[in-house]
Design brief:
Rossmann fold; alpha/beta; Adenine-specific Methyltransferase, domain 2
Length: 292
């Protein structure tokens, strides 16, 4: 198990399902790319392996506040810790910080604001309005940990092996080469018209974007890359990736306006490669050899 872990809460984060995803990681690969990094659960899980193989790592996201935070953790973690300790968990203070315009802030101030809002807002959601202003309400917690110094320093060490950038997935994946492993965790296709949690940036990740991502998936496959993609279990996704190796995993949804729809749910895992190339197959082979 990796000793590294995500330092932000993230809707759709993969920490709780990483044991299922890890079975389908390729047995062998070169460099690693994660263009919808979010909380980065897959990256943090892979860090020890990535260090051992001296792999190049490319992490990116379209949420600029998140990327600024990760860059600060990588390059200036002690200053970030010091700044973030100045925040306090109070409702009035929360809305004061939320109301600040982050676009003119120094990066370290903006990173500290992002960390504070993430740890104290409702369910760790990241949502902005059409003007790009963060608009998630205050979270009602007993005693939230805003600054986990050990986790932040550990993440800083992990980020030293990574190139962190802000940009659209189509652009940042152009440097992927044959033998590289790419994990794609885009905003999910909604299960219903009322379950749309894709508004992480000014503008939705819509059907056109999912089709554009499918074209990139196809191109990466043709290059000889290993591509893994997570998404919701919908007819749209199944039809879109028809012909690929599709797996079903068990996940849970903690966020839904209808409390009855929270809980266990099936999700899809789409692979560009065969089962024989996964770690699940490698483990099965090892067990078979032990039995023999």
């Amino acid at each position: 198990m990796s000793t590294y872990k995500p330092v932000v809460k993230w809707a759709g984060g993969k920490s709780k399902v990483i044991s299922q995803l890890s079975k389908y990681i390729p047995q062998a690969f070169n460099d690693y790319h994660e263009p919808f990094v979010g909380g980065g659960a897959m990256f943090f899980y892979l860090v020890p392996d990535l260090i051992n193989r001296n792999a190049k790592v490319y992490l990116s996201d379209l949420v600029k506040d998140l990327i600024i935070l990760y860059a600060a953790i990588k390059n200036n973690v002690e200053e970030l810790i010091r700044k973030s300790k100045e925040h306090k968990y109070e409702k009035e203070y929360y809305y004061k910080i939320r109301s600040l315009n982050p676009f003119g802030m120094p990066d370290i101030e903006r990173a500290s604001r992002m960390l504070f809002l993430n740890k104290t807002c409702f369910n760790g959601l990241y949502r902005v309005n059409k003007k790009g202003q963060f608009n998630v309400s205050f979270g009602d917690y007993k005693d939230p940990v805003i600054v986990d110094e050990m986790a932040l320093r550990s993440a800083s060490r992990a980020f030293q092996i990574a190139e962190i950038s802000h940009g659209d997935f189509e652009l940042v994946l152009k440097n992927a080469q044959k033998g590289d492993f790419i994990y794609l965790d885009p905003p999910y296709v909604p299960l219903s018209a009322t379950s749309d949690f894709t508004q992480y940036t000014p503008g939705l990740f819509n059907a056109y974007d999912h089709k554009r991502l499918k074209d990139v998936f196809d191109n990466l496959k043709e290059k000889g890359c290993y591509v893994m993609l997570s998404n919701s279990d919908t007819d749209f996704v199944v039809d879109l990736y028809s012909g690929y190796n599709i797996k079903t995993i068990n996940a849970s949804r903690a966020i839904n306006s209808n409390i009855k729809k929270r809980g266990a749910v099936k999700e899809l895992l789409i692979l560009s490669y065969a089962d024989s190339e996964t770690r699940l197959h490698l483990v099965a082979q090892e067990r078979k050899e032990v039995q023999v």
